[in-house]
Specification:
Blueprint: H1 3-24, H2 30-51
Helix pairs in contact: 1-2
């Protein structure tokens, strides 16, 4: 596995844990949740782009 993909997977998992932790609080911070979810989505998008096969440009 590519080291970058591995690190991004770890970051994605940690963000998911942080989101779950925040949701379990009695009064979750909605702004923090929003920020965490946006970060998680960015990481997911980057992972997805890295996993796609490289396409050659048409000449």
């Amino acid at each position: 596995m590519n080291p970058l993909i591995y690190r991004l997977t770890i970051v994605h998992r940690r963000l998911e844990d942080e989101i779950r932790s925040e949701l379990r609080r009695r009064f979750p911070d909605h702004f923090r949740l929003l920020r965490l979810k946006k970060l998680k989505l960015k990481v997911k998008d980057r992972l997805h782009r890295l996993m796609l096969p490289k396409r050659r440009a048409a000449i």
